[in-house]
């Protein structure tokens, strides 16, 4: 957990950038089924950015007029102490966190009304609908968490993004720690892979490793022999000797910072000739894109570079035909690489994605409408301190490669008959997909791969697969 002085410094930066008061909500418990049975608690990411050890239901008023930060917490009751254990007193929290005051959460509306008076008060809509409704009633704003254009006033969004986008050493230390846990999880899953088990057994190794290190999954774990289903969260398939396992999983620390990593490996421990060929193309694309990360580099250009390396490999394999630059420019690569190369990473696995393209796309840049490139989540010029993922892949997706309109559109550019062989190989189960994903920090002189210690060379992976049983 970053030292409280880190959060205090971040709050001071926020106050200095504000021209009026802001109310932030952490969010409360979310019920799973009946009211008292809760999902694990997760505070809103912007709240986590400013405060450590966030209690459910916390709220905070930032007032640049007097430079104060008032924290609002639930009152300490005997019943809470009985059921949930003792919690620090308001005085202890005030001292530990260095806030101006700690007030009763039940008096939030009255306290804010008195302190803010007639001044405009802004807030941020968050995932917890009850907390958001309360904040909207207090501020009078008309916001909507589910419309990324209306999550908060655009100027406030820009102020928050300007802080959250540039990771400080304390934040990077958290991300390096989650990278270690993520490495242990991925290597455990590789080591325990063997034919005849179900995907969920390996998910147990992944999420058990996270739990043993005090972490939770930063997002629903993707572990599947159906790697061509991009966000496949079902874990019931049996592993066949000739299948590939795609694991996309990242640990999230109690501070909220996380990793997002994908590896792909053969169940047998040996890549087939086709598997090795496709793997090497994806790895070459991933490495080229990582090497392109540096200050001033436009992320869309990183994406296009990855697409060109993938396309070049697919042309060499005979799956695509024509000039590589033209194929990528026209979007033909999306028949095998239908998503973007990556996204911002930090407290959210897709960092700040709730705010949409007003954060992820530089001013004046619009999302492409072309199939594939339309899924590019990021088009900023990279700057030191930004963390991004690099995650190219090649997939054999029946819904794409058997689509009549695509087959007509790309008749001269894609060898659909050859692609069909990949859809039907592996005793009819198909080739699946290969993605390789790492987390990359843009530094003043280039980049640092935060997840570099997670094996991805073919030989290293082959040596690990099944090693727990040997
Ligand atoms: N884990 C989701 C992603 O890679 O974006
Ligand atoms: Mn990702
Ligand atoms: Mn991922």
**Whole-number mean pLDDT:** 97
What does the radius of gyration come to? Answer: 24 Å
CATH H level, superfamily name of the largest domain? Creatinase/methionine aminopeptidase superfamily
List the bound ligands: glycine, manganese (II) ion
Instruction: Report the principal-axis shape.
Output: globular
**What is the first-to-last residue Cα distance?**
37 Å
* Low-confidence sequence ranges: none
Portion in beta strands: 5-15%
The top level CATH class name of the largest domain = Alpha Beta
Strand order within the widest sheet?
4-3-2-1-5
- What is the SS-derived class? alpha+beta
Largest sheet: number of strands, sense, barrel closure: 5 strands, mixed
In the CATH hierarchy, the third-tier topology of the largest domain is known as Creatine Amidinohydrolase
- Find the count of extended strands (DSSP E, 2+ residues): 15
Estimate the helix proportion, in percent: 25-40%
Count of helices?
17
Number of domains: 2
Name of the CATH architecture of the largest domain:
Alpha-Beta Complex
């Amino acid at each position: 957990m970053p030292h409280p002085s880190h959060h205090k410094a971040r709050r001071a930066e926020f106050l200095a950038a504000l021209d009026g008061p802001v109310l932030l909500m952490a969010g409360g418990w979310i019920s799973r089924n009946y009211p008292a049975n809760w999902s694990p608690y997760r505070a809103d990411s912007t709240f986590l950015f400013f405060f450590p050890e966030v209690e459910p239901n916390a709220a905070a008023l930032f007032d640049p007029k007097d430079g104060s930060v008032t924290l609002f917490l639930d009152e300490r009751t005997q019943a809470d102490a009985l059921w949930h254990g003792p919690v620090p007193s308001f005085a202890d929290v005030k001292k530990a966190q260095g806030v101006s005051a700690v007030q009763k959460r039940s008096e939030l509306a009255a306290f804010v009304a008195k302190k803010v008076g007639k001044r405009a008060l802004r807030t941020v809509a968050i995932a917890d609908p009850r907390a958001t409704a309360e904040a909207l009633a207090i501020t009078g704003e008309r916001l909507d968490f589910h419309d990324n254009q209306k999550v908060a006033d655009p100027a406030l969004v820009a102020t928050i993004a300007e802080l959250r986008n540039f990771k400080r050493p304390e934040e990077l230390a958290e991300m390096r720690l989650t990278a270690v846990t993520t490495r242990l999880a991925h290597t455990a899953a590789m080591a325990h892979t063997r034919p005849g088990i179900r995907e969920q057994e390996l998910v147990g190794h992944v999420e058990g490793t996270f739990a043993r290190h005090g972490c939770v999954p930063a997002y629903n774990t993707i572990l599947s022999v159906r790697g061509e289903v991009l966000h496949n969260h079902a874990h019931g398939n049996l592993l066949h000797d000739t299948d590939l396992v795609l694991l996309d999983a990242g640990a999230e620390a109690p501070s909220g910072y996380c990793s997002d990593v994908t590896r792909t490996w053969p169940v047998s421990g040996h890549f087939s000739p086709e598997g090795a060929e496709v793997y090497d193309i994806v790895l070459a694309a991933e490495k080229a894109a990582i090497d392109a990360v540096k200050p001033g580099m436009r992320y869309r250009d990183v994406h296009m570079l990855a697409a060109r390396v993938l396309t070049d490999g697919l042309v060499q394999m005979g799956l695509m035909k024509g000039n590589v630059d033209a194929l990528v420019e026209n979007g033909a690569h999306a028949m095998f690489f239908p998503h973007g190369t990556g996204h911002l990473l930090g407290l959210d696995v897709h960092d700040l994605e709730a705010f949409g393209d007003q954060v992820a796309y530089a001013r004046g840049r619009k999302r492409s409408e072309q199939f594939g490139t339309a899924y590019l989540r990021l088009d900023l010029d990279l700057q030191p301190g930004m963390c991004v993922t690099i995650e190219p892949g090649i997939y054999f997706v029946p819904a794409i490669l058997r689509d009549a309109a695509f087959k007509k559109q790309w008749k001269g550019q894609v060898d659909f008959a050859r692609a069909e062989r990949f859809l039907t190989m592996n005793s009819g189960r198909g080739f699946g997909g290969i993605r390789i994903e790492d987390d990359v920090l843009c530094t003043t002189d280039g980049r640092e791969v935060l997840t570099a210690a997670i094996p991805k060379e073919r030989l290293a992976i082959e040596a690990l697969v099944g090693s727990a049983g040997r």
